Amino acid sequence: MSIDAEVLLDWFTERARDLPWRRPEATAWHILMSEIMLQQTPVVRVEPIWREWVARWPVPSAMAASSQAEVLRAWGKLGYPRRALRLHECARVLAAEHGDVVPADVDVLLSLPGIGAYTARAVACFAYGQRVPVVDTNVRRVVARAVHGREPGNPSSRDLAETEALLPTSVPRAAKFSAALMELGALVCTARNPDCGNCPLPRCAWVDAGRPAAEVVRKVQKYEGTDRQARGRLLDVLRDASGPVERVRLDMAWTRDPGQRARALDSLLVDGLVEQTEDGLFALAGEGA
């Protein structure tokens, strides 16, 4: 079974969310920032911070001129702050080696810091309108259900080829189709409680098969009490500080498990998000000198 491109594109034209990074004035750099921010983070949390970043760092060289600590503070509570550091590093490369312009070629994009297979293709597709498969969790779910009649399994090298085979031959239509697939998965064909009654597709292999359950049961990732939460609390202290702080300030931020706190701090140091000064104080990246 395939996906009726005409029907999906018509639905997308009528129902697509008016997201700021989809507007004509959004540059490839703006779209790149949105793609980095949206990884494992809901749109509602990303949009206000993205708007602030576009105003503050409209081009890569503007971000490159800022410190790592400034970028980490601006990242706020989006989560997975290593993404912010990698984006800062990417901005420096774009400013120094690419004339302050995000390249359109997928292979060149893949050579940039912090740019993986999904992000490279997303930028090529959504910023430059290229006919390349863009596969995130939403797209994988729609393709698995509508075409193959099953819930998605683990990510596979087949995902790109299977998605590319569905793309219309017309380049402009293919880019819009990729966005529409993603939108359908985000709004209708959701992981939990899919709204099949409002799905525009005339046929779905998964519905035809009786909506079989997933063969792979995924564990829900908790946050409360995890090392991620401990890391976040320690970073909060440093983001709110005007300079390096003593270890006791960090100790007070996470008192429930000293061993976990030490492990979290070590991981922040290893990841380059935190620095230790010569006199034993702790600071955000770039502020420990």
UniProtKB/TrEMBL annotation:
A GO biological process held by the record: mismatch repair
GO molecular function: 4 iron, 4 sulfur cluster binding; 8-oxo-7,8-dihydroguanine DNA N-glycosylase activity; adenine/guanine mispair binding; metal ion binding; oxidized purine DNA binding; purine-specific mismatch base pair DNA N-glycosylase activity
Signal peptide: none
Keywords tagged on the record: 4Fe-4S, DNA damage, DNA repair, Glycosidase, Hydrolase, Iron, Iron-sulfur, Metal-binding
UniProt xrefs under InterPro entries: DNA_glycosylase (IPR011257), Endonuclease3_FeS-loop_motif (IPR003651), HhH-GPD_domain (IPR003265), HhH_base_excis_C (IPR023170), HhH_motif (IPR000445), MIG/MutY (IPR044298)
Domain of life: Bacteria
Top-rank EC class of the record's enzyme: hydrolase
Domain HhH-GPD: 37-187
Entry-linked SUPFAM superfamilies: DNA-glycosylase
EC number: 3.2.2.31
SMART domains per the UniProt record, alphabetical: ENDO3c
CDD domains: ENDO3c (cd00056)
Cofactor(s) this protein cannot do without: [4Fe-4S] cluster
Gene3D superfamilies on file: Helix-hairpin-Helix base-excision DNA repair enzymes (C-terminal), Hypothetical protein, domain 2
Catalysed reaction, written as an equation: Hydrolyzes free adenine bases from 7,8-dihydro-8-oxoguanine:adenine mismatched double-stranded DNA, leaving an apurinic site
The protein's name in its UniProt record: Adenine DNA glycosylase
